[in-house]
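Field: COMPLEX_INPUT
Field: COMPONENT_COUNT = two
Field: RESIDUE_TOTAL = 955
Field: MODE = joint
Values follow.
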Amino acid sequence: MKWIKRTSSILVGVLVFAVIVRVLNYMYVGGTDEEERILWHSFYEDTGKIDNLYLGSSHVYLDLDPYQLDQLNGQYNFNLSTPGQLMNGSYYLLKEADRCNRLSHVYVELYYFYNVKDNFGEDREPIDAFVSCNWENTDYMRLSFNKLQYMITMADMEKYPDIVFGFSRYREHLDDWDYVKGTMGRKRSSKYLNYQYRIDWDDDGNMYDEYLPRGRVYSSKKYLGKQRFLIQDKILKKNPMAETSEAYLRKVITYCQKREIPITLFISPIYELQLISTEHYDNYLNQVREIAEEYDVDIYDFNLVGEEYLPIQEPEYFRDVGHLNSTGADLYTEFFYKIMSGGAVENQKYFYDTYEQKLAHAKPEVYGIYFRDEEQEEEGAATDRNMFIASNRNEGMEYRIVMTPEEGNAQYLVQDFSENRMFKVDRGEHGTCSIVYRMKDTPAAEQTIEITY
Amino acid sequence: MLFNTLEYILFLSIVVFVYYLMPKRLRYLWLLVVSYYFYMQWNPIYISLLFLCTLITYIGGLILERIKSIKTETDEKSSRRKKTCIILCIATSLGILGFFKYATFGISIFNRALSYIGITPVLWELDILIPVGISFYTLQALGYLIDVYRGDIYVEKNFFRYALFVSFFPQLVAGPIERSKNLLVQLHEFHSIDYDKLRKGLMLILYGLFVKMVIADRAAIIVDTVYGDSSAFPGFYIVVATFFFAIQIYCDFYGYSTIARGSALLMGITLMDNFQAPYFSKNVREFWRRWHISLSGWFRDYLYIPLGGSKKGGLRKEANRLFVFAVSGLWHGASLAFLSWGLLNGAYQVLEDLVDQFKQKLQPLAGKNAQMVVRFSKRLFQTMLTFFLVTVAWLFFRSGGISESLEMIRNLLGSQNLTILFDGSLYELGVAKNYMNVMLLSILVLFIVDYQKYHGKDVVEAFLRQGWWFRISVIMTLIFTILLYGCYGEMYDTQQFIYFQF
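Field: COMPLEX_OUTPUT
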């Protein structure tokens, strides 16, 4: 009898613990990960239906429209894509999808940012630097051996409490009752209960992001020209892919090949400003191509498509520097389908071999300005900021740069038609930068771009 | 593998689970294997030093036994040979300890002396990483050897069991420095699963994690901020930080020792309690009977008493005391700051002896039946004074050097900013208001528990006798205080236990 009493008291203790965890999660968790919640709800509702699976980060759910793809390919398409999805995430999500469906084809997006190491600071693996990108998946995945495996392998053991107990991640809000009220209020709202979520980007609701089922985010937001100012913290040196990303990419491919599920790798279009700022984007591309070749898997980088086939490098098609808005997504999805339904040899004509080649063939253009703070901090130069003009010409183009600072400071000229693409600005200074650019051999054809910095 | 990590909790769970699955007579071998594995998590190469220390003292014990058993020898000859043997063993073990712990310090002192008299310093410098726990296991092994020499304990003939005595993982890296009469004897016993021991062990682990993660590591943030730049945080900032360091080092070490006791108890082994509410002591002498008891006891039994203790006159007694505390200071680390800290604690006690003598002369003048309020006030004053004196000594301990300590004192005295205690400035030392409040509340809980302990009560036993709802409420409060207010996870570096470096 004694052991029954003891066992039951332990079980009741565990139950009390679980109830408290649940209450705390209800109070603190759920402020920032609506997209995952809607996605996973939709995923489990669609159990058994999914034919084509699209894995990857926000570049999938914003850029590819599964509903449009349904109409184009006559199959059931699903974006199991999550914010900042890392390659280990793609692997476990693939297994989850395969566990619940009979997959016809798997498409894996390989956005460089989450697959390479940090260049500055601690040179951390993405799996360590972006642990939250993983736990936001496991928060909503149903209990399975796959989920447990995912949780165990996603981070060092010291991060397990944050992985297992969601509330512990929000400890900074412990006595912030407004936060708690806000979270609980949101959870009681009909929108939350009905899995509806929309963010308005201006007061009149003219621009918005809406989270739809099947991993689709519809965005009417536009990337305004003046916003083309970017911090760049990843310079892509030779073989820049992180070890864990490479290892998990291999696992994804091997898994599909073992399960005889066709797999295609792809990279969605990004606004040129970001890719140019990586300085050696081809290094990344070469590495993923080598891996794809090793396994005899097709890979398509839509950043290499000639503008005559996919004229998407216009701010009006973008939501921000990395993502398409819905107008851009419509254009891209259609072209994506065209490529995926065509043969590899036939497709070759649409793509340049390297990113450098593509830039050289594009019409001369400046896409914006980027800067690197961390690099300068390492050098100990803290007052100035190195700014770089992102143009598609390394030589032959000259720039006139005029800065108009805010706060009533006088306008000043940085350079007057020089080929120099780097200039310095005081870190504390903000305003508008006006760049007039022209090709040396056609000085009359001047163009101007204005950027808020 | 730190005690306040999930890695350790997982390790301990596996160890305990397998321990009870194994045949009883083989369990000590399992513990030996996991203890060596545990130690190798720090620096695998240094396992050889642990093994060497074990081997030297083991063989030393066997030789002492052999000498004793030779009946043909005269007592004098036997005694001489025993002495030679034990001196050799002690010298070798201390030689290894000294090399790894003090060689760098010795060379730097030597070089400083050479520079002082105008001679070029020697060029070679040693950059040695101190093996974790070497000071602890060396003293434990030597304690065994001296006990064998004195005939206080039998010789352990089973090498593996003896090796486990030296390397038992819960107390391997930071004590308690166990006596062979307690631990070695228990390693011979066959322990069955004992529900009461299991839950007491778990409770001790939980309480140890609470004081370490909620109090010590949080206080460490304030201490590190102020001690890291004392010129930016002068005056009462230093007073506050030194107070918090007194709390930090206690909770850090007490937390470790409590987890160690709890871990051992899960396997049915009772380790000594290393702390008995030291901050309630009414003088520094008592403090040292209650703080790091295993080390104080070791120095008392194996150094102070052999030096003559208090038996050779007042002057000699005080000299012995100062010497022992100087050694104790140096045991903590090779630096003049530790030496000063040790000497200061020794000097306090010398002064207390002098004051006691003076008080005895005044005793007849004082009323014998002082009122309770007066007695309480006197008691409170004594406790606070002791805490103050000990805390002043901690300043030397924490500063890391004599010049740094003096700099701290200069900065402390150089600013009269009492208002920082009330105007919210303390919340800007890295600990937000809610965390600070919970830490202070936890310190209050600690003091309540310690007060009970001071009066001889076994708080954990008493707690386990309470009703289920009370127990579950306290357990859940502790668990969730750790989860909500403990230092762990993405935002914090897990703080190593301070005494691991010694």
